[in-house]
Structures are given as C-alpha cells and as structure tokens.
Amino acid sequence: MQQTPLLLLLLLLPPPLVPPCSHSCSQSHQSCDLSDLNALHGFVEGLESSALGWSFNGSSSSNCCNWVGISCDADSVSVKRVIGLDLSNKSLKGSVSSSLGGLDQLKQLNLSYNSLRGPVPAEIFHLPHLELLDLSMNMLSGLIPTESNLSPIQVFNISFNSFNGTHPILAGSSNLSVYDVSLNSFSGPVDTGICNSSDSIKVLRFSANMFSGEFPAGFGNCSSLSELLLDANGLTGTLPDDLFTLSSLTKLNLQGNSLSGTVSTNIGNLSNLVHVDISFNNFSGAIPDVFDRLNKLECFSALCNILTGGLPPSLSSCSTLTTISLRNNSLRGTIDLNFTTLPRLNILDLGSNLFSGPIPPDLPNCTHMTTLNLARNNLVGEIPSSFKNFTSLSDLSLTGNNFVNLFSALQILQNLPNLTNLVLTKNFRGGESMPSEGIQGFANTEVFVIANCALSGSIPPWLVNLSKLKVLDISWNHLTGTIPVWLGNLDNLFYLDISNNSLTGEIPTSLTLMKSLIYGNSSLERTASQDFPFFIKRNSSGKGLQYNQVSSFPPSIILSNNKLVGSILPGFNDLVKLHVLDLSWNNISGTIPDLSGMSSLESLDLSHNHLAGTIPLSLTRLNFLSYFNVAYNNLVGEIPTGGQFSTFSKEDFQGNPGLCGIHLIPCPKTPLRLKETTTTELMRQYGYILEWDQDFSPDSRVSTLCYYSEDREGLLIFK
C-alpha cells in the first residue's frame, strides 16, 4: 500500500484547539502610537475644562482608539495611528495646543462648536495628511500663517471666529472643495488666487468680514464653483465679466457691500442659479430681462439699491421662484406680472418703490404666498375682491398708498384664515370712518395696524374678538369716545398705541391688569415673520420711521395726545413687563403714584398734563429707565437724585415752576423764615418762587411759601 506523504497528513489533521482571545487581548495588539498619545495629552493640558473622559494613566491609556472623538487607522495590525479627531460640540474651553501637530497621520480635525480661544498654532497648518479642518464656531483669533502645507485638504472651515489679517489662500491645496472663512475679521482685498490652487473648489464663503477694495476678477478660474458668498463686507466697484462664466453656480450672495454699476445681462448665463442676493448695494439701472434663462431660480433679492425701470416680464417665466424681494428701489410702472405662472411664489416684497395702478387681482393664484408687501408705493383703488380666496396669506402690508374703502377692505380680508399681520397705515384718507360693525373675522390676527388714516368714529367693538392680538396701533386718527374696558382683557396684547386721537374719559382699570404685561408670555417672542416690514409712522409729518419689524415692538401702552382725564392709576405699578408708558399731552391730574415696581420700564412720559405734588423718590429704583419726561405740569419740590435721574435733561422737567434741584436751579439750603416780603425780593434773592397763593403781581405781598426741604422730610409751609 502506498504511503501517504507527511505533508498531506499534516494538512488533513484538524487544527489545534486554541482558546479564543478576549477583547483585552486583541486590544493589546492594537495600542495607540506613543507619539499620538503624547500629542493628545498635550492637547488636553491646554484645555481649561473638558468632559472628554480621556485617561492617560493605567493600562487603558494605550487604547486611545476607543476614546470619545478619536478614530484610528484600520489597516494597522498592531500599533494604531490616530487619523481622526472629532470633538465638535464638546464644551471645550481653553486654547489649541501646538502638540496636535504631532498627530502626523491625522486626516480629519473637527473642533467646531466649542469655546476655544486664542491663536491657532502654525503646526496645525502643516499636518501633511489633513483632509478636513473645521475650527468653526469658537472664539479663536490672531493671524493665519501665510505659509501652509495642507496639500490634501478638501474642507477648510474656520468660520465664526475672530481671525484677522489677510485670508489664507492655501497654495498647493489641489483637492480643496469647501473653503469657509465667513464671520471673522479678515481685511484687505479678497484674493482670488485661491482659485489657482484647486480646480475642484465648489464652495467659497467670505461672508461678514472686513474685506475692502474693488470686487476682484479671477473667480472665473473656479470653474466648478457652485456657491460664492461675499455678503456683508466693504467691496466696491462693478462685477467683472468672468463672474458670469461660472455655469455651475447655484448660489450667489453679494448683499451688504458698496457695489455699483448695472446688473449685467450676462447673469442670464448662470443657468443653474437657485439663489441670488445683491441687496444693500448701489446697483442702478434696469433689472435685466433674462429670467426666462434662469429656469432653476428660486430666490431673487435686490432690495435697497437704486434700480429703476419696471418689473422685467420674464420674471413670469420663472415658475420655480419662491421669493421676489425688490423693496426700497426706484422701480415704477404697474405690477403686471402673470402671477398665474408663479405658483410657488411665497414672498413678494415690492415695498418702497414708485409702482402705480391697482393691486393685481390674480395675486391669489399664488397659492403658497404667505408674505405680500406693497407698502409705500403709489397704488390706488380698492382691495380686490379676489383676495377673499387668498387663504395662504399670513403677512400683508399696504402702508402708504392711496387705497380707498376701508370697510370693503376689512370685509374682504376678514376671510383670510391665516392672516397674522395686517398693516394698512396711511391709506383711506378721504374722510372715511372706522367701521363699527359688520366685521367678524381676523380670528388669527396678531398684529393689526390702521394708523395715520384720519379715520373718524370710535374704537371698534369687533376688536374684542381678536383674541390672539399682540400689537394694536390705531394712532393718528380722529377717533372719539372712551377707551373700552375690554381692551385690557385681550390676554396676548402687549403693544397698544391709540395716541393722537380725541379720546376722552378716564383710563380704564383694565389696562393695569393686562396679563402679557404682568406675567409675560409668548406675545413677547419673535414670530415666524419677524423680519416683516411694518413702516409705522410716528408723527403726522412723516419724518422718520420706527418699529420696522415686529420683533422691534417694545411692550408699550401709548395713550398720548388725547383728551383723557382722571389720575394715573396706581395699578400700573404691577406691569412688570412694560417697557414704554406714554400718557403725555392729556388732561390727567392728581399725583404721580409709586411706579417703582415697573422693573422693565425704559420710557415714562407724563409731560403736558396737570399733575401736582412731588416726583416720587422711588422712581430712582427704575434701573432701565432711559427716558423720563414730566415737563409742563404743576409739580413741586426737589427732583430726586440717584439712579437714572442724572442722565435726564433740563427739558424733561421744565414748565414746573415749583421744581428745583438737579437739572434746574438749586433748592434753598435752609427753610425761608420770613413774615412778609415782596415777590420782587424773592425773585432777586432766589430766582424763583416755589408756590404762591392766588394771583400776584411783581409787587404783591406773599403770605404763603412752600418749600420742599433738602432732607426730604416733608413740605414746609411758612406764613
């Protein structure tokens, strides 16, 4: 019988039984490189605080690959090298140690969303294998080294810090794809030499720095560029031609510079544009009629320029548009776009231009539109009846036009179930009245403004049904009657302006019980339409605009310039959330009560009334009070000192012959002891008379003199 070869026997034998290796056993062959461990230890020593849980003592110290945020090379069999360090959003505080330069195999370094500060060591910019560097959202500062060696880098993000000097161009980084230096303090010109480093750059973000000089040529060399952000800088000049060769560009943001010239028709070459924003510049001339070539465009914003001419008809061909924002230009003509072809339009902002004619009746065909601003134009006519079907509309401002028939407008708009903000200021000025009945809708309206319309009538009772109302402004009209009690029962109301009317009677106690001004609630939070412009006029001459956005409205009760009587209600003291109380130019009498509990009060105007007595010393405890006016009343005694009172001016107290002290003439140091004297002698000696009885002439005899003693113990009367 043939003998079996030994080698074959060995191959046929079953393998020997070997006990399985435990987890700790396997890790003993996968320990960290000692130099990496030292680099990590140096990094932690540079931190003021961290909760990483890394341990550099004991047997576990060699297993750094298992630590939070660390990834190692999977190809190594024994000693592992650290190739990734992701410590984003780990509440790190302190500085970035140069020891990280010892991680010479590192491919990804992410320290974003922490509280790191100080300069970044030069060693970081010489890591030979680094592909991703993300230092964004920290407090890092200083210069970025002009010389770097990051040839493999693909993502470079140092945004939201305080770096200064010139921005890095990362020469030799041929793989660079994303470059973000936004929200720093870089200055000087923008260097388009970065486009010579890589032909694969897709994202360039230079937003919110201090760049200056003319808009540079050279971005055309970034042939793969899809996103270019240069907003919020100080760039000047015109746009170079090579910018319009970037056929892959989807997002272009140049807003907030000082760029000028016309908008080139070559912008139509950027056929992949989705978002373009050239707002807040000095562009002039007509908007090019090339939108039929931009069939992917969703947002076109060019507000706050000096553009002229009409709306380009090709805008109607851009069916993908969701936002058209052209506010504050000099555009004119009728609004004659075909809104039936713009079904996705969400925001149309044409405010502050020179548009004329009626409101287009086909606007409700934009079934996704939520915001419509046509304020401050020369539009005429009535609100189209088709607006009854504008069910998507949430924010509507028609301020400063020449619309008529308020009653019809309200009857139409009350049908809009989602209408949240309605501003009709400076319209209906042909002697119309505020409708008192026939209005039942506006159930979801939070901001209701019909100011400066010269409306007659009274405060309409149907407002009581606006249970979600937060802001009510019907000022600068000719409304009469009393302030209704129910006005103070609107739980969400935090801004009430019924000033500059002819309202009479006393202030209802309910205004001192307004829940949102006592407890505070969601009324004070920003709404979804926080940037919606309101353009509320603060005076009949139209000089200046205030409260341009709903988020700007301070919690206020403004009742000035009416014919109100009675006293200042002590209950105002409970309105701890109130910022502004204006009762000026009325016929209010009595004394000033203790209002020191109004801890949020910033402005208190009680001027031009008939108030008597002294200014309460307790008002000095109002730490946020920046405006205070009691001029032209009958107040007496010494003006309180301390708190904010030293910051007020003489004009805030004038017209009160009995006041003395700070901002006015000094109060006498000692009580006047006299039996009989003449007013002429008193005027010559003290320069004023605190209080006199009856009528007097310069030579009459004074029998009573009131003096508020400097120690504030009380009013001393001498006969």
Automatic annotation (TrEMBL):
<keyword id="KW-0433">Leucine-rich repeat</keyword>
<feature type="domain" description="Leucine-rich repeat-containing N-terminal plant-type">
    <location>
        <begin position="35"/>
        <end position="73"/>
    </location>
</feature>
<keyword id="KW-0472">Membrane</keyword>
<keyword id="KW-0675">Receptor</keyword>
<comment type="similarity">
    <text>Belongs to the RLP family.</text>
</comment>
<keyword id="KW-0812">Transmembrane</keyword>
<dbReference type="InterPro" id="IPR001611">
    <property type="entry name" value="Leu-rich_rpt"/>
</dbReference>
<keyword id="KW-0732">Signal</keyword>
<keyword id="KW-0325">Glycoprotein</keyword>
<dbReference type="Pfam" id="PF13855">
    <property type="entry name" value="LRR_8"/>
</dbReference>
<protein>
    <recommendedName>
        <fullName>Leucine-rich repeat-containing N-terminal plant-type domain-containing protein</fullName>
    </recommendedName>
</protein>
<dbReference type="InterPro" id="IPR032675">
    <property type="entry name" value="LRR_dom_sf"/>
</dbReference>
<dbReference type="Pfam" id="PF00560">
    <property type="entry name" value="LRR_1"/>
</dbReference>
<keyword id="KW-1133">Transmembrane helix</keyword>
<dbReference type="GO" id="GO:0005886">
    <property type="term" value="C:plasma membrane"/>
</dbReference>
<dbReference type="Pfam" id="PF08263">
    <property type="entry name" value="LRRNT_2"/>
</dbReference>
<feature type="signal peptide">
    <location>
        <begin position="1"/>
        <end position="20"/>
    </location>
</feature>
<keyword id="KW-0677">Repeat</keyword>
<keyword id="KW-1003">Cell membrane</keyword>
<dbReference type="InterPro" id="IPR013210">
    <property type="entry name" value="LRR_N_plant-typ"/>
</dbReference>
<dbReference type="InterPro" id="IPR003591">
    <property type="entry name" value="Leu-rich_rpt_typical-subtyp"/>
</dbReference>
